[in-house]
Amino acid sequence: MAAALPVAGCATTPAAGPTEAASATTAPATASPAATPPDHPHHRLTELERRYDARLGVYALATGTGTTIAHRADERFAFCSTFKGLAAAAVLHANPLSHLDTVVRYTEHDLMKSSAITRRHVATGMTIRQLCDAAVRYSDGTAGNLLLRDLGGPARLTAYLRGLGDPVTRMDRIEPDIVTAIPGDPRDTTSPRAIGADYQQIVLGDALPPDKRAFLRGLLERNATGAGARRVRAGVPKGWTVADKTGTGDYGTLNDIALVWPPGSAPLVISIMSSKATRDAAYDQALIAEAAAYVVATLT
Description:
With 300 residues, the protein is an alpha+beta fold. It has a single domain (10-95, 118-299), classed as DD-peptidase/beta-lactamase superfamily (Beta-lactamase), CATH 3.40.710.10. It has ten helices and ten strands. It has helices at 20-24, 41-52, 83-94, 128-138, 141-151, 154-163, 192-203, 210-221, 226-230, 285-299, and strands spanning 10-13, 55-62, 68-71, 77-78, 103-104, 126-127, 189-190, 241-249, 253-261, 268-275. The strands form three sheets. A six-stranded antiparallel beta sheet has the order 1-3-2-10-9-8, with helices on both faces. The chain has a two-stranded antiparallel sheet with strand order 4-7. The longest helix is centred in the C-terminal third of the chain and has 15 residues, at 285-299.
């Protein structure tokens, strides 16, 4: 995996032995806007950036053909709550499956604002299984922090990702600090390509054994956040299977990292990240949905 570089270019790249459909949309990553056709990803995705006044990062892979779409794919974005799927994977990797039944105790002092699930169970504690469910499906901030605590802290998650071959993603802090998303701040950031590859490994690859992988995929497929329904899922045809984790932060930051299964076809990896210039910028869920719809139409 390439290290993060500030590349604003956009390209569609076919696998070796390109098909007619793949080669028809191929252009060099360094091609200028004037040298690319109007329907090239560079134009379509920069138009979305212009319309929504946002910076948009996209990395998408058709796993069956190897064709990719990349736009600002190696630029850094704050990952916000998308870390929670990775944290769950790291906890699963570090422990036997029976660890899911371990009860974790916490106090009112541990509760974050976005803690609808953990807030109900302060008196009894929650199992690791329940914390994974709360963090991944409901994006419960306290649950995410407790998974990091079980793992040994943010640096341990970074170390796990380095073990996956990801030299880019770095976890420095916990909730609520990770959502500050200050432009130029490298803390708690990743690139669309890096985090997309991470999710590909933990959900589609062999980074986890089959039983743990199935557990994590089930959580991602049953995403229960309202944001999940309005981002990649809103840009995917009905009847397709989607497993995803969203993230939201200051500076209009909206992210969605998804694995998408078209009926009868190999899955797609769709990693979409975005940000804006001002801290209180409006959130445009449709930006992510439209980018996802374009990616799906291009790769299938």
